[in-house]
Amino acid sequence: MSKEKVFPKDFLWGGAIAANQAEGAWNVDGKGASQADMTRGGIISGETDQQIDPNLYYASHEAIDFYHQYKEDVQMFSEMGFSLFRTSIAWSRIFPKGDEKEPNEKGLQFYDDLFDELLGKGIQPMITISHYEMPIHLVDEYGGWSNRQLIEFFSRFCEVIFKRYKDKVKYWLTFNEINNMHKIPLATGGVRIKNEEEPLQEIYQASHHMFVANSHAVRLCKEIIPDSMIGAMLSLSVLYPNSCRPEDVFETNTYRRRHLFYSDVMIRGEYPTYVDRIFKEHTISINMEEGDLELLKAHTCEYLAFSYYLSSTHKAGMPILTHTGGVRGIDNPYLPKSKWGWQIDPIGLRIVCNELTDRYNVPLFIVENGYGDVDSINEDGSIHDVDRTNFLKEHLVEIYNAIEDGCDVRGFAWWGPIDIVSAGTGEMKKRYGFIHVDKDNEGNGSLKRTKKDSFYEFQKIIESNGASL
Ligand code: BG6
């Protein structure tokens, strides 16, 4: 008989969403337009419209109307047994243009109410300060994180929210999937690359500004909320070498380092030596100010949170293509795929947990893992989403194994516990939820919430703290 998979007693169970994919109410109560609000077809479509066209459909404008319906949703999260809920604060709700001196009170009030609702049900909020959206004004007028002035605006934003929510929010994350600066710099950092032929100078310069801002955020957070934890968040789906050919192995490792570069700086507090070669070969020179490197060293992230969806394989010399799930390489013949071609690899998650523990030995949180699928609704309204449940269980078993391996995994947040807009494609059809939302790709639907079979399955797992797996 296999051993019961009981998780550590304080393990946090829950789900994760992002403001722009769920809240809607894009221009309500003083909110300004964010880059996500000006985008159609998903954040990786790579452009924003210059103006909102009222005849066109923008998925974030209503999304699932979490802004108005969060109480019902939080009630359902509580029924599932959540102890953790990750969401982001829409920067443009608090500072509509981003460069104002005074925050928007109504925006602040919304999050106060949301956090009260969560805490009242015993659910810890985990807050991503910047999740693929910034006020569009900062993108258009300042060039996003290419501009050092963003450090000042972001620090002001952080100070305001840390002071306001110091008694309510103890888990913070600075930038969602910051390592995606390489593949989606507009979504990740509000940066429109000018030199597409040789983008690395701009990417590393903007990343440096984000690192400095990250350290300021860590400093402020620990000063204002001493009993908080503030972490880095990366996209860390796995890339395997396509063969044991040394060239394939080496180049795959090189790409992995391109990602881990971000946590190397944010957790170890210094630029790793391997970037010297990249900087030399691409004639990159980072503009730094006096004191930057000392700041990075003094204020580092205490934990590493990451998203994990899939794995892929890489052959030396092939271009690196990507989607929101991670790197898109050659299919692995040993693994099945989702309808969006994402290869399902639970053991890959155990590999990543071990890799990160060996490298950093800090607490880990899996803050995104999930299965996007097309759901079929039966006549009686039921949704038998067996594949989603299997995906969930298989990944949780590997998290359990990673904990047994010695990894300090503190929590798990399923991506999109309620159906939300897909970041990659802007669709509603790609559903991750345990809770179905009646809305289609064109924006039609009543927004009614319905529990899928996976809702009850996750409930059982949480109730037994993993033992039912
Ligand atoms: C992550 C993002 O990259 O992947 C989320 O942090 C996103 O915002 C998730 O939604 C899943 O991607 P998609 O494209 O299926 O929504």
From TrEMBL:
Keyword Signal: yes or no? no
Cross-referenced Gene3D superfamilies: Glycosidases (3.20.20.80)
Q: Name one Pfam family in it.
A: Glyco_hydro_1
The signal peptide stretch is none
Q: Which UniProt keywords apply?
A: Glycosidase, Hydrolase
Instruction: Give the matching PROSITE patterns.
Output: GLYCOSYL_HYDROL_F1_2
Show the PANTHER family listed in the entry: 6-PHOSPHO-BETA-GLUCOSIDASE ASCB-RELATED (PTHR10353:SF122), GLYCOSYL HYDROLASE (PTHR10353)
What protein family does this chain belong to?
Belongs to the glycosyl hydrolase 1 family.
Spell out the protein name for this chain.
Answer: Family 1 glycosylhydrolase
